């Protein structure tokens, strides 16, 4: 068992099998390579750094919000996180939280890809796409208020 301190979640006790390794870290946080995914509810989770209590990302499954979200994984990426096939993959996107629910966004341009079986992860930046770093999650709220 591993003890983790989290600014957002308090003290956590997780099994070694729950640790996710990002061999090259996450861009901007390359020195941090071990995380744990902690579900908050059916929509959001925290990707909590194991050795830095203050480092956590709110993440969500993009397919819950954007049913037509799609991209292809390169053979290089598949090799890097030791994926043999596209089964056993989990995808999460980092959320930028806002007290105003209409302003909550997610980064569809750079999803987090997980090899579920081997507990490996990588953030990839998609190429040749219209996805951006800030897609509104609550677009119906914006439409009601007349914004886009």
UniProtKB/TrEMBL annotation:
General function of this protein: Acts as an anti-CsrA protein, binds CsrA and prevents it from repressing translation of its target genes, one of which is flagellin. Binds to flagellin and participates in the assembly of the flagellum.
Gene from which the chain derives: fliW
Places the protein is found: Cytoplasm
Record carries keyword Kinase: no
A matching Pfam family: FliW
Alphabetical list of Gene3D superfamilies matching this protein: BH3618-like
InterPro entries, alphabetized: Flagellar_assembly_factor_FliW (IPR003775), Flagellar_assmbl_FliW_dom_sf (IPR024046)
Subunit structure: Interacts with translational regulator CsrA and flagellin(s).
Protein name: Flagellar assembly factor FliW
Keyword Cytoplasm belongs to the record: yes
Main location: cytoplasm
UniProtKB keywords: Bacterial flagellum biogenesis, Cell projection, Chaperone, Cilium, Cytoplasm, Flagellum, Translation regulation
Organism: Saccharibacillus alkalitolerans
Family to which the UniProt record says this protein belongs: Belongs to the FliW family.
């Amino acid at each position: 068992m591993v003890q983790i301190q989290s600014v957002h979640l308090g003290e956590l006790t997780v099994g070694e099998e729950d640790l996710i390794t990002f061999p090259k870290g996450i861009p901007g946080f390359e020195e941090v390579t071990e995380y744990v995914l902690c579900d908050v509810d059916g929509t959001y989770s925290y990707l909590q750094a194991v050795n830095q209590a203050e480092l956590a990302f709110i993440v969500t499954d993009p397919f819950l919000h954007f049913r037509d979200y799609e991209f292809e994984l390169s053979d290089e990426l598949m090799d890097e996180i030791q994926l043999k096939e596209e089964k056993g993959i989990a995808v999460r996107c980092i959320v930028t939280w806002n007290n105003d629910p209409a302003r909550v966004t997610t980064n569809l341009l750079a999803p987090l890809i997980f090899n579920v079986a081997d507990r490996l992860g990588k953030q990839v930046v998609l190429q040749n796409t219209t996805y951006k770093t800030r897609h509104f999650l609550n677009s119906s709220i914006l439409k009601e208020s007349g914004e886009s």
